[in-house]
């Protein structure tokens, strides 16, 4: 029993000596963020627009984490029979992470990724569940203390679809977005 009390006393003394700073202290505010986004891409050989949003929290506007979702907004004809995609026939969502570099500067950038799943349902065919990963980079400009305008680019990896094929859905993308940050 004396050993346990000695260990408890030593741990308490070390904790008090270490100070009260922590990642979650009030000096590093967590902020809610909302990022509506429009992506420009190709599916097959045709232009594809995907609208979506990210919602989450950030730590000092440097580390963002949350959920994201995107959906096709136009009609796309792909190769092969029964492979037309109408609006929302291709959608995906999942978790996102974003590491923003030089967040306190007027112009700053980030590396980010969305990892999740979705569904593709070509006209006249069964729907297929797909895995989606979209790593990317962005460049942002602060328009106001809590509002940023950004552009980005990346690659969308898709696995699990036959019609259209994974290679028709896996494509480079570019985006434009606004990011709204709020203090908690």
Question: Quick summary of this structure?
Answer:
The chain is mostly beta strands and 184 residues long. The protein contains two helices and ten strands; from the N terminus they run αβββββββββαβ. β8 and β9 (147-159) form a beta hairpin.
CATH hierarchy class name: Mainly Beta
Main β-sheet description: 8 strands, antiparallel, barrel
Number of helices: 2
CATH A-level architecture? Beta Barrel
Mean pLDDT: 86
Distance between the termini: 44 Å
Helix content: 10-25%
Work out the strand percent: over 45%
Low-confidence stretches: 4-25
| Fold-level CATH name | Porin
Neighbour order of strands in the largest sheet:
1-2-3-6-7-8-9-10
Count of discrete domains: 1
Total DSSP E strands: 10
Which value, in Å, is the CA radius of gyration? 22 Å
Pattern of helices and strands: HEEEEEEEEEHE
Structural class: mainly beta
Shape: elongated
How would you describe what is shown here?
The chain has helices at 2-18, 166-169; strands at 30-43, 46-59, 63-72, 76-77, 84-85, 90-101, 107-120, 128-144, 147-159, 171-183. The protein has two helices and ten strands. It starts with a helix and ends with a strand. The longest helix has 17 residues, at 2-18. It has an eight-stranded antiparallel barrel with strand order 1-2-3-6-7-8-9-10. Strands 4-5 form a two-stranded antiparallel sheet. A hairpin with a 3-residue loop joins strand 2 (46-59) and strand 3. It has 184 residues and is mostly beta strands. The relative contact order is 0.18. It has a single domain, classed as Porin (Beta Barrel), CATH 2.40.160.20.
């Amino acid at each position: 029993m004396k050993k346990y009390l000695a260990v408890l006393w030593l741990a308490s003394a070390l904790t008090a000596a270490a100070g009260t700073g922590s990642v979650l202290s009030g000096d590093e505010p967590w902020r809610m963020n909302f990022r509506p986004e429009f992506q420009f891409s190709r599916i097959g050989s045709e232009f594809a627009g995907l609208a979506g949003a990210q919602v989450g929290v950030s730590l000092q506007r440097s580390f963002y984490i949350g959920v994201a979702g995107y959906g096709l907004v136009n009609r796309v004809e792909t190769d092969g029979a029964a492979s037309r995609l109408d609006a929302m026939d291709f959608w995906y969502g999942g978790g996102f992470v974003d590491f923003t570099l030089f967040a306190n500067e007027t112009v700053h950038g980030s590396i980010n990724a969305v990892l999740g799943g979705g569904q593709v349902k070509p006209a006249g065919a069964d729907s297929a569940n797909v895995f989606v990963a979209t790593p990317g980079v962005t460049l942002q400009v602060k328009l106001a203390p809590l509002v940023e305008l950004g552009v980005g680019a990346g690659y969308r990896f898709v696995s699990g679809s036959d019609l259209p094929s994974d290679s028709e859905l896996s494509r480079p993308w570019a985006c434009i977005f606004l990011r709204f940050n709020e203090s908690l």
